[in-house]
Write a structure and sequence with these properties.
With about 280 residues, this protein is α+β, with helices and mostly antiparallel strands. It has 9 helices and 16 strands. Helix 3 runs antiparallel to helix 4.
Length: about 280
């Protein structure tokens, strides 16, 4: 069996150790795994790699948020993890929020959605962020008009959302979900930033899901046909509020703080799904 692992050049270099975990797992499972970079691929009328028509694999693990590429591969009959619906919805915070809210899961209250920010904030304080952002990048807590103006300048060309800040800033929960099952939950905490992302210096610890959190994860996982994702919650008055779904979810917390080899588990999940 042959599979592709797709990255762009920057992320492939940044995630070399994680990529090696995939290759180690593939070798143990007698899978021929090939790494391809999006810079070397074309997927308009034909799927080409380095200018040549591609020999299609049995499956693809796509580690870039490019729904058009995922859709192209699926149109050629190749199973992709995560699939194009997950890629299209979950890499847009506005679409994700709407989908999850329809499941009866509480979400952060949104004041506005559009391109750029409105000239005046509809509410202060507010959180401004691009709908396609990842890793806490370009997320702004605007506590006054000056901070809002700075955010508006940075986000002028971006499709954005404005949200009401929750009460418990600097604290969030990431739930790693494989298929429909939560694999691990990590509570992320920052004492210096309203963003608690591990990659931004926040600390993390294992967390036992409450019945409420587990129920929200169940509703979301049953709505989507996930491969591997991170479902993120923030807290308002101590209660979980949905924040976002990370399609191309990072694994540094798992490898740093647990003995879970998530790449091996993911590859095993994919092979089992393909042979069912």
């Amino acid at each position: 069996m042959t599979g592709w692992l797709i990255y762009d050049a920057f992320e492939a270099e940044r995630n070399r150790a994680y990529i090696d975990c995939y290759f180690s797992s593939a070798a143990r499972r007698d899978v021929r795994l090939l790494l391809y970079l999006t810079e070397d691929m074309r997927w308009d009328d034909r799927l080409q790699i380095n200018g040549r028509d591609a020999e299609l694999p049995d499956f693809v693990i796509c580690r870039r948020p490019i729904p058009e590429l995922t859709e192209k591969l699926e149109s050629l009959g190749v199973p992709v993890f995560n699939n194009s619906r997950v890629s299209r919805i979950c890499n847009n915070k506005y679409l994700t929020s709407r989908a999850v809210k329809s499941l009866g899961v509480p979400v952060a209250e949104e004041y506005w959605h559009g391109t750029g920010l409105p000239p005046a904030a509809p509410h202060i304080p507010c959180v401004a962020k691009p709908v396609d952002g990842h890793g806490g990048q370009c997320v702004f807590l605007c506590r006054d008009a000056a901070e809002y103006a700075g955010a508006a300048e940075t986000l002028a060309e971006h499709e954005c959302v404005l949200q009401r800040p929750v009460s418990d800033l600097g604290r969030d929960l990431r739930v790693y979900v494989l298929g429909r099952e939560p694999v691990a939950a990590m509570l992320r905490i920052s004492d210096a930033d309203f963003r608690s992302n591990f990659c931004l210096g926040g600390r993390a610890e294992r967390h036992e899901l409450t019945a409420e959190e587990r129920e929200y994860v169940r509703r979301i996982a049953e709505e989507f046909d996930f491969g591997l994702v991170g479902i993120d919650f923030i807290y308002d008055g101590g209660r979980p509020v949905f924040n976002e779904i990370e399609d191309v979810v990072g694994a540094r917390m798992l490898y740093s703080l647990t003995d879970i080899d998530i790449a091996d588990r993911y590859l095993g999940f994919i092979l089992e799904k393909l042979t069912r």
